Amino acid sequence: MIEDLASIGWRPTLIGLVVLLIGTIAGWGMAADREFTPAHWLRWWLERIILPGLRQRSWLARLVVILLNNATICVLLIWAGGVPAGAWIGVVIVGLSLGAALRMLSDPRWEMADYAGLSEPADRSPPDPESGMPPAPDRLVALGVLLNLLELPAITIVLGLTMGRLAAPNHLAPADIWRIFACWVVPLLAIAAGGESLWLGRRRTF
């Protein structure tokens, strides 16, 4: 199993990470302009498709929405890697979208933090008047965030598989690519989606 990851190669993985980082920084900067048209397309997708699913009361329903969204993006990226210039275009688009989404969810001018449930909960417990200390952190939220971080190795593997097809060939057969995706990426995404669903459910009031 570990040999599968080694077969991806460090070169396509590193190239993919660099391109994604550049795209994310560019997307963050572009979304500073509220007239940036692609950001409005992304906002429609978030508000009409993703965020309503994340507002479900059921932990499992939120998990399914997150997993389907992330897995679909990963599948499309790997598929694009088999098309000339497809890997470059696909990773740049994902980076731009990621950067723009992060800016829109954190910048008050986009007015999306409250809608997404990412602002501070209104019913948060006040500090203890005797000790003056804030309440103890929610351990389930901390656990959810830690599990959510498993998205990072999943994304790293997908970038290596994507760039390794034509952009920086690692000569993996298509069957091997999809086997690695099924054995490594899908479980990591599923666990990460469970963690994200957990902390989202603990932070917001439905």
Q: What do you see in this structure?
A:
With 206 residues, this protein is mainly alpha-helical. It has one domain. The protein contains 9 helices and no strands. It is globular and about 45 Å long. The model is unreliable at 118-124 (pLDDT under 50).
Rg from alpha-carbon coordinates: 19 Å
What is the approximate shape? globular
The SSE string, one letter per element, is: HHHHHHHHH
**Number of individual domains:** 1
Strand residues, percent: under 5%
Task: Fill in the keyword field for this structure.
single chain, mainly alpha, 0% strand, globular
In short:
With 206 residues, the protein is an all-alpha fold. It is built from 9 helices and no strands.
Layout: helices, strands, pairs:
Layout (H helix, E strand, L loop, with lengths): L1 H7 L1 H21 L6 H18 L4 H22 L5 H21 L6 H4 L22 H10 L2 H13 L10 H30 L3
Helix pairs in contact: 2-5, 2-8, 3-5, 4-5, 4-8, 4-9, 7-9, 8-9
